[in-house]
Specification:
- The complex is a heterodimer of chains A (320) and B (281).
- Chain A has 320 residues and is an alpha/beta fold.
- Chain A has two domains: 24-150 and 306-319, 3-Layer(aba) Sandwich (Rossmann fold), CATH 3.40.50; 151-303, Rossmann fold (3-Layer(aba) Sandwich), CATH 3.40.50.
- Chain A has helices at residues 24-40, 66-77, 98-106, 122-132, 151-165, 183-194, 224-228, 242-245, 252-259, 263-266, 289-292, 299-318, and strands spanning 55-60, 81-86, 112-117, 139-145, 172-176, 199-203, 219-221, 233-236, 274-276.
- In chain A, strands 7-6-5-8-9 form a five-stranded parallel β-sheet. In chain A, strands 2-1-3-4 form a four-stranded parallel β-sheet, sandwiched between helices.
- In chain A, helix 4 links the parallel strand 3 and strand 4.
- The relative contact order of chain A is 0.15.
- The model of chain A has no long low-confidence stretch (mean pLDDT 92).
- Chain B folds into two domains: 2-56, Roll (Urease, subunit C, domain 1), CATH 2.30.40.10; 60-280, TIM Barrel.
- Chain B contains eleven helices and 15 strands.
- The longest helix of chain B is centred in the C-terminal third of the chain and has 17 residues, at 212-228.
- The chains are: A alpha/beta (320), B alpha/beta (281).
- Chain A binds chain B through residues 2, 20, 98-99, 117, 119-122, 124-125, 128, 145-149, 183, 186, 210-213, 215-216, and chain B through 197-199, 201-206, 208, 210, 274-281.
């Protein structure tokens, strides 16, 4: 495995682009750093000065309200100045290249770019460009690039698992749904493997699984009942409606029948298994309301942990 | 003008030569190969080039050089591309028809060959469009285009989906013995794909192209070529499995040469893993 461009020569996090390639102790350090930030949210004045005076630019080339909002909240709780750029409606539409956009914004003295882009690798390209042009002080956080990676989601999912299950090395974890198109799934798989989870399963029809997915360190199941047997953690993925148009699936009803998480299927997992979902949920498509609103779901805590994890990442990258 | 190129490694595939040999050139023609000057050489050359450590070979031919003219002059121009070609030892360039406008009219081809004569770095041989606008529907005026300078007809990377059109285009070209250069890629299987469908594409989250995209299209092209007797070249041939499968056709007498894009030699999936963004952004 080649050296990670995310770590500087001292092994410190310079950017957060992908979980793949980060050593276990770096992941653990991020989770450990996030822990005290969960209590910041419970204070009356929800602020710490770690990023005071720093400018965080949210560069979202893809629409997202929830992720952008959580990054904004996290940055503001660290006392940073936050600028939101919804590039859909601005320069990129006028034909400005990605790197020109990055150059223009760095000329406005940004300290951090939080980037979401439809093309796999875009944040990596920006980070490489910043390094090549002597602007190492600008940190890049990948908020989701194409189908490649969503590292902060992977990290908050790991934080959630650690919160409820403590020891990664004793778990069986199943990821269910559209793995083919999911950057969340890829980040989850890398994180689970790096943190020592002995068995990572993916459950999906063949049309929603990438060729060669086993090589990433997972056991493939096409039968959900088989795949859920004895599992400690069920991680659901959202199914997008577009998949019906691409001849990947016939209908949401049929998908729900075979791959929707119902109480009856969940009963095959361990009795204390937790149910996770990155959101937003499609009730009745990948998950039954009874499960989403039931006692085993930890979907709302995931959101809360997400803010703390993002605070930890930003503090580690650019903290005073 | 007498030129003596000495101490070089002479490589000439046509005569299967690969030896240290000197080359003697007079008035633009090679007049001697070997250790000693030819009989009529006289005393001394106007120019002696010491090619120690160098390869001396016939000018290289680039079968798919995108010259960016007409239409894409913001990327490069004839001058810049031909200078780059000469600097790399490429003396003949075949340029594909996917310019803007497409090379499907004799006037455009004439304009291009006229422009290309000026820099004098290399020879340009246009490949004309097989169908108008590369749309895969109607035939181009191939005899007119050939007269204007086209050495072959092709579709760049725009597949002809209608197999009847493909059959008739090859048949028409075969009528005049015009070569047809085609890239074997099924447009539906390759739709939106940017990488080989496998572990690297899975890891990087890139849309993959299965091997079948080439093998299926290749089978179609070879069958139609056999039926029509069209002379051709398979462009951008990049799958071992495709070559193996069609070794049978080669034995049966399909003599179509195949070319591989230089990029494919250098830019395999593993390298993509290290520079994923270059493919998309």
């Amino acid at each position: 495995m080649h050296k990670s461009p995310q770590l500087n020569k001292h092994g410190e996090l310079q950017h957060l682009l992908t979980i793949e390639g980060l050593p276990r102790d770096v992941l653990t350090r991020i989770l450990d750093t996030a822990a005290p930030f969960t209590e910041v949210a419970e204070r009356e004045v929800k602020k710490v000065p770690l990023l005071r005076g720093k400018s965080v630019f949210n560069l979202f080339f893809e629409n997202s309200t929830r992720t952008r909002t959580t990054f904004e909240i996290a940055a503001k709780r660290l006392s940073a100045d936050v600028i939101n750029l919804n590039i859909n409606t601005s320069s990129a539409n006028k034909g400005e290249t990605l790197l020109d956009t990055a150059d223009n914004l760095s000329a406005m003295h940004a300290d951090m770019f939080v980037v979401r882009h439809a093309a796999s690798g875009a944040p990596f390209l920006i980070a490489q460009h910043m390094a090549a042009t002597g602007r190492d002080h600008i940190h890049v956080v990948n908020a989701g690039d194409g189908r490649h990676a969503h590292p902060t989601q992977g990290l908050l999912d790991m934080y959630t698992i650690r919160h409820y299950k403590a020891d990664f090395t004793r778990l069986t974890v199943a990821i269910v749904g559209d793995v083919l198109h999911s950057r969340v799934a890829r980040s989850q798989i890398h994180a689970l493997n790096t943190l020592g989870v002995p068995e990572v399963r993916v459950i999906a029809p063949k049309t929603l699984l990438p060729t060669g997915i086993e090589r990433l360190g997972v056991r493939v199941f096409n039968d959900m009942r088989e795949g859920l047997r004895g599992v400690d953690v069920v991680m659901m993925l959202r199914l997008q409606n577009e998949r019906m148009q691409g001849a990947l699936l016939p209908s949401t009803q049929e998908y729900f029948k075979s791959y929707g998480l119902t109480p009856e299927k969940l009963a095959l997992a361990k009795p204390d298994a937790i149910v996770m979902h990155p959101g937003p949920m499609n009730r009745g498509v990948e998950i039954d309301s009874a499960v989403a609103d039931g006692g085993q779901a930890v979907i709302l805590p995931q959101v809360t942990f997400g803010i703390a994890v993002r605070m930890a990442v930003m503090a580690m990258l650019a903290g005073n | 003008m007498k030129i003596h190129i000495k101490n070089g490694r002479l490589i000439d595939p046509a005569s299967k030569t690969d030896k240290p040999l000197d080359l003697f050139i007079a008035a633009g023609r090679i007049v001697g190969v070997g250790d000693t000057a030819p009989a009529a050489w006289g005393n001394g050359a106007n120019s002696v080039l010491d090619a120690t450590g160098c390869i001396v070979c016939p000018g290289l031919v680039d079968l798919a050089a995108r010259l960016r003219e007409p239409g894409f002059e913001y990327r490069a121009t004839l001058e810049s591309e031909m200078a780059a070609a000469a600097a790399g030892g490429v003396t003949r360039l075949a340029c594909p028809p996917d310019t803007d406008p497409v090379l499907d009219e004799p006037g455009l081809v004439e304009m291009l060959t006229h422009r290309a004569r000026l820099p004098e770095f290399a020879h340009v041989h246009p490949v004309g469009a097989l169908t108008t606008q590369l749309e895969g529907k109607a035939l181009t005026e191939m005899t007119e285009l050939s007269e204007a300078g086209c050495v072959a007809f092709g579709q760049a990377n725009h597949a002809i989906v209608d197999t009847q059109v493909l059959l008739r285009a090859m048949m028409y070209a075969a009528t005049f013995d015009f070569p047809v250069w085609l890239q074997a890629q099924d447009p539906f299987l390759a739709k939106k794909g940017v990488a080989h469908d496998g572990e690297v594409a899975a890891r990087l989250g890139l849309a993959g192209i299965p091997v079948a995209a080439e093998t299926i299209a290749l089978a179609t092209i070879l069958h139609l070529a056999r039926e029509t007797g069209a002379r051709g070249r398979r462009c951008r041939h990049d799958r071992r499995r495709a070559r193996r499968r069609h070794r049978g056709d080669l034995r049966r007498g399909d003599s179509s040469p195949a070319s591989v894009r230089n990029g494919y030699r250098l830019f395999r999936c593993e390298r993509a893993a290290r520079s994923a963004a270059a493919l998309n952004a």
